[in-house]
């Protein structure tokens, strides 16, 4: 499982943890997130994240 960091605010999306508050189950891979996924902290688009 990988992690991805928002280059705007630093929020980290961890595939192992998902984002349950946003309806994204643990184990959800980055590629499987909806195209309109936004950073929960700052609202940045998915293309503003980088793999870490």
From TrEMBL:
Residues 1-52 form the Rubredoxin-like domain. Fe cation binds at residues 6, 9, 39, 42. PANTHER family: RUBREDOXIN (PTHR47627), RUBREDOXIN-1-RELATED (PTHR47627:SF1). GO terms for molecular function: electron transfer activity; iron ion binding. GO terms for biological process: alkane catabolic process. InterPro entries: Rubredoxin (IPR024922), Rubredoxin-like_dom (IPR024934), Rubredoxin_dom (IPR024935), Rubredoxin_ET (IPR050526). This is Rubredoxin. Binds 1 Fe(3+) ion per subunit. Transmembrane segments: none annotated. Belongs to the rubredoxin family. SUPFAM superfamilies: Rubredoxin-like. It comes from Papillibacter cinnamivorans DSM 12816. It comes from the Bacteria. Keywords: Electron transport, Iron, Metal-binding, Transport. Its cofactor is Fe(3+). Pfam families: Rubredoxin. The keyword Nuclease does not apply.
